[in-house]
Amino acid sequence: METLANGVKIGEKPEGMEGHGFFATSLEKVVGMARKNSIWPLPFATSCCGIEFMATMGAHYDLARFGSERLSFSPRQADLLMVMGTIAKKMGPVLRQVYEQMAEPRWVLSVGACASSGGIFDTYSVLQGIDRIIPVDVYVPGCPPRPEQIIDGVMKIQRLVETESLRRRDSAEYKAMLNSYGIE
Amino acid sequence: MVKIMSEKNTLALFMEESTIAQYIPIALMFVVAVGFIATTMLATHLLGPKRNTKTKLEAFESGIPSIGNARIPFNIKYFLVAILFVLFDVEVIFMYPWAVNFKELELTGFIEMVLFIATLLVGFFYIIKKGALTWEE
What we know:
The complex is a heterodimer of chains A (about 180) and B (about 140). Chain A has about 180 residues and is α/β, with parallel strands linked by helices. Chain A contains six helices and eight strands, in the order ββββαβαβαβαβαα. Chain A has a domain at about 55-160: Rossmann fold. Chain A has helices at about 25-35, 50-55, 90-100, 110-115, 145-165, 170-180; strands spanning about 1-5, 10, 15-20, 20-25, 40-45, 80-85, 105-110, 140. In chain A, strand 7 (about 105-110), helix 4 and strand 8 (about 140) form a beta-alpha-beta unit. The radius of gyration of chain A is 18 Å and the shape is globular. Chain B is an all-alpha fold and about 140 residues long. Chain B has two domains: about 1-55; about 75-130. In chain B, about 70% of the residues lie in helices and about 0% in strands. Chain B is flat and about 70 Å long. The N and C termini of chain B lie far apart (about 85 Å). The mean pLDDT of chain B is about 85. The chains are: A alpha/beta (about 180), B mainly alpha (about 140). The interface between A and B is medium-sized, with 16 and 13 residues.
């Protein structure tokens, strides 16, 4: 990684052909880089993890540094569903519809113990982890997790976004995975 | 003689050029502009990943089943209020340059402005009497 005189670090460029005044690489890498640095999250904040998320979006932790300052409250424009908080069983269908109506390709970040496993709410009314109704890409542990942990989760999502094959979502394996959740 | 000839030539050239052929670059620009938009939209629709299922294409109402149609008639008073706003908004816009040039315009400007505001005030009393601003009905 190259460091400039003012301390700004320049990220590494992907593998590719380089010459005088040009740089060529595969479409997949370019698309991956573009997607990775412009994730639009949909915050599905239902409880205290949502408060931690507010801190994450605030000036001190500033998720905008990762290209995610534009939150979307419509699933149509969102790439990343951030589920933060306890999901009651009655909330389940709502969460599921939000996921199903998101733009393709879509990722899911499960923040906190409640979203990941139901947490301390081991009761009849609480969904024991959102992965019972929608596929989850990255889990963030903690009750609630600190903003650093949420940022770590987002960075892990970025890694997935960057390295995902363009054909992954068309594969039979992926479709079978969605079908196992009852999603077309 | 030569000068006259050349003038005639330029005139002829000018008349020749002001034909439909002169507008070809503009037409070309229109074609490029429309073509660019059409190509990008077509390309994103063809190349972009999508999964059009029934649930996905449903109207989004925060995950709750939607009830009724969004296209319902609503109170026309909103329109009236919008029109009244525009009217009195313009009045205030006129007051700014008047206030800036208050000293130069002297008494004439003041009288003119009072007349202007008085006219609008008549209208203001008229709409109050007509009950345009009473909401609870």
